[in-house]
Prior knowledge:
By secondary structure, this protein is an alpha/beta fold. It has helices at 41-47, 84-98, 101-117, 130-140, 160-169, 191-204, 216-226, 230-236, 254-263, 271-276, 284-289, 309-324, 332-338, 341-346, 382-392, 419-439, and strands at residues 5-14, 22-31, 34-40, 52-53, 56-63, 65-70, 120-127, 143-148, 178-179, 181-182, 208-212, 244-248, 266-269, 294-296, 364-367, 398-403, 406-410, 413-414. It is built from 16 helices and 18 strands.
Amino acid sequence: MSERIMLIPAGCILTMDAVGTALQDHTIVSKDGKIAAILPTAEARAAYPTAEVFDASEKVVIPGLVNVHMHSNLVRGFGDNMALYAWHEAIAETVGMETRPEEMQMGALISYLEAIKSGTTTMLSMEKYSAYCYEAAVQSGGRVRIVPYVLDFDDCVDKVELNLEYVEKTLDPALRTRFIFGFDSFREAGPDLIRQVGALSEKYNILMQTHSAESVDDVKLCLEKFGCEPVKYLYDLGVLNERMILAHGVHLTQEEKDLVEKVGARIAHCPTSNMKLSDGAAPVREYLDRGIRLGIGTDGANSNNNYDMFEEMKFAALLPRIATKKADDLTAEQTLRLATIEGARVLGLDQEVGSIEVGKKTDLCILDMRSLHCLPFNMAEPGILMSHIVYSCSGADVDSVLVDGEVLVKNHTLTRFDEANLFRAANVMACDLTARLKARGVRM
Ligand SMILES: [Zn+2]
């Protein structure tokens, strides 16, 4: 079989490699979905005169963004003014109970596509009806890691057995969509179930994720129920280790921070959701200074209310400053690293994605920054381009997106779907679900 070679000539490539290389007038040579070379454009065109060309010569190319914690949603736009526990009970649980599997599948599809269209190529999503979400993830073309909402309730649809079944079904590392292990939180999963998930994660050497230390109430409840804080509780159960990704990790004691650092656990930082649910500000600078692996997540659209990682980067860069009163907590470049290569490290995918380097997958986010909000626009000023990306841009500036060299978005348009038809079909379902939620007493 002949190789599929594609040339992607770029105005500027922000590689996000270890030394932050930025290249002007270079071309990414993609062979069978992997980056085979990065050459000066004239050289690449001479070397591959007949290759297909995907032109980004007026555009800025960055690695596809990595969202390390999200949940799919078909509906959003209510429960905007509630703190975590009240919101969880009145909104998250009610929406979860009312949503039917086919609605969840549609919700997952539009959520993954929203993320892809705004530049995210790799995402970790915790889902109810995760088997249905799996089908949606495969359809979307994104690189998705699914964690089921494993709970200790009899009517739980995502039992640990299903989690295991889908982990085994998706063991092939070549698959774009795979399962990891996880459980919702200590609130919904008892100690035996948590230990069981931990043992499976160890046996298969596969990551796991749970919500932890998200708000002050979360810490209070764990202290009341188990006599210790949430992260310490996970440690005592033997599941705080290098395979654990803690979603949020806002309120940790010094002892808990020491434990996370010692065992090499990972953190999914979700600044917008933390602000919206009035959780507080995670000590991001301190985590990074301790060498803790940390990436950025949007959380679900019910508490964000979108999957735009550009917005998330801006809030990630700004939120710590409120807590520390220090303006240099996170630079634009450091923030972009968190949303790319560091996110990939959190998901154990840094050898494959997260930076634009030879041997990695052709997962790219291509930005058209020829807009009034991106002046000065000069390919030779990577520092300014990165500032624009973090502070001025939004997902709407994403022109094209590639995963494994497959073009999933071109000229701001999804290639696998007719977006207008998809919108209509999804909106019929979303309006129907909203009406049922209203009938259940959810305040709009
Ligand atoms: Zn979450």
